[in-house]
Design brief:
The protein is an alpha/beta fold. The chain has 2 domains: 215 residues, Quinone Oxidoreductase, Chain A, domain 1; 176 residues, NAD(P)-binding Rossmann-like Domain (Rossmann fold). A hairpin with a 2-residue loop joins strand 1 and strand 2. 29% of the residues lie in helices and 21% in strands. Helix 5 crosses helix 6 and helix 5 crosses helix 12. It has 13 helices and 16 strands.
Length: 399
């Protein structure tokens, strides 16, 4: 079968690989009909998240059709249309039963303390082959796969595999409540859904921060108040917009691949923070490729979040930070009595809830899907998405 594979930093290929097979009783093989490119995939391409084995199939977002199930899968039949959640979970350990599917005790081969297992990720995440392929093996399919109602389209369903549940989870982490003023840092795919999720969870005001006008325009179309960090200091703007108080909640939808601000009030601070981060990274992983140019600020969004939130406010972090990130402004956060929550999304917990919002017509998530590309054009799609070209906000791969 054809699949998108990783062979090193900047070396992504579309090539023939072996077809997946049933290995365990609760496995299923799914024919992928639509996959997608996520910002997390760019971490691997750039080298900001190390630890991938050469030849691994990339991708952790997909919908498809079940073609084969193991004897332990009693709730699915070949031909069923399904969403494949990005994270993998057994469904029966104490964490899964409490809704913490991303911390399943059994999914990660690294053991109970290894943390999140997900498709197309590094060895620390289980090393599972991903979903940018014609077929995929899905472990614990009886729990992981979610059936798609007939009324829900493929374009709508693909947005529920990862990015909308992740954004919804980010708003939950930030403890968004009715009447809150919420800042969303990053207006990429997850950031756009974070704007939507904050509104749906009761926010009175949502302030969206980014440096790209097309992404800010999309956030503004969702009635967010927008701030371009290339035109003004975003923290100063937020403080002014909130009467000197700051926002109640922040959702960090950026993570380590923060874009460097243009020359202006935030640039010198970003450079200093990037230098500090690079020194710390080299202490933790001296031989790793940082994946960013000198002058970038990998933790800029997290620092702006701490500065922009009001005293006793809450920050929810769903932007990806790898284990090489060891720097965070704890002193300022402590002085302001902030609550900071971070983590990988418990997709299987939230997908059914969000699927109902789509099925009953409350939300059409496909409106945020901006490109459809065939799998055969995936390498060009990666380049366009990496360059943040206008119109390449969220890319679906039609398999």
């Amino acid at each position: 079968m054809k699949a998108v594979t990783w062979h090193g930093v900047g070396d992504i290929r579309l090539e023939e690989v072996a077809d997946p097979e049933i290995k365990d009783p609760t496995d299923a093989v799914v024919r992928i009909t639509t996959s997608a490119i996520c910002g997390t995939d760019l971490h691997f391409a750039r080298g900001t998240m190390p630890g991938l084995r050469p030849g691994i199939v990339l991708g952790h977002e997909a919908v498809g059709e079940v073609v084969e199930v193991g004897p332990g899968v009693r709730n699915l039949t070949p031909g069923d249309r399904v969403i494949v959640p990005s994270t993998i979970a057994c469904g029966y350990c104490s964490y899964c039963r409490a809704g913490y599917f991303a911390q399943c005790d059994n999914a990660n081969p690294g053991g109970k303390r290894a943390g999140t297992a997900f498709f197309g990720g590094p060895e620390a995440a289980g090393g599972f082959d991903g979903l940018q392929a014609e077929y995929a093996r899905v472990p614990f399919a009886h729990v992981g796969l979610v059936g798609i109602p007939q009324e829900v389209s493929e374009e709508q369903a693909i947005m529920l595999s990862d990015i909308w549940p992740t954004a919804w989870f980010g708003a939950r982490l930030a403890e968004v409540s009715p009447g809150d003023t919420v800042a969303v840092f990053g207006c990429g795919p997850v950031g756009q859904f974070a704007v939507l999720s904050a509104h749906l969870q009761g926010a009175a005001r949502v302030i969206a921060v980014d440096g790209l006008e097309d992404r800010l325009a999309m956030a503004k179309a969702q009635h967010a108040e927008v701030v371009n960090f290339n035109a003004e200091d975003p923290v100063a703007a937020i403080i002014e917009m909130t009467g000197g108080v700051g926002v109640d909640r922040v959702i960090d939808a950026v993570g380590v691949d923060a874009e460097r601000p243009a020359e202006g009030p935030a640039t010198e601070q970003a450079d200093q923070q990037a230098d500090q981060f690079d020194q710390e990274r080299r202490q933790v992983a001296p031989d790793s490729d940082p994946g960013w140019a000198p002058g970038d600020a990998p933790t800029q969004a997290a620092r702006w979040a701490v500065q922009a939130v009001a005293k006793a406010g809450t920050i929810g972090v769903v932007g990806v930070y790898p284990q090489t990130v060891t720097s965070f402004p704890f002193g300022e956060a402590m002085m302001k009595n902030l609550t900071v929550k971070a983590g990988n999304c418990h997709h299987r917990r939230y997908i059914p809830e969000l699927l109902r919002l789509v099925d009953n017509g409350t939300v059409d998530p496909a409106q945020l899907l901006t490109r459809h590309e065939p799998l055969t054009d995936v390498l060009d799609a990666y380049r366009q998405f990496q360059d943040r070209d206008p119109g390449w906000l969220k890319v679906a791969l039609n398999v």
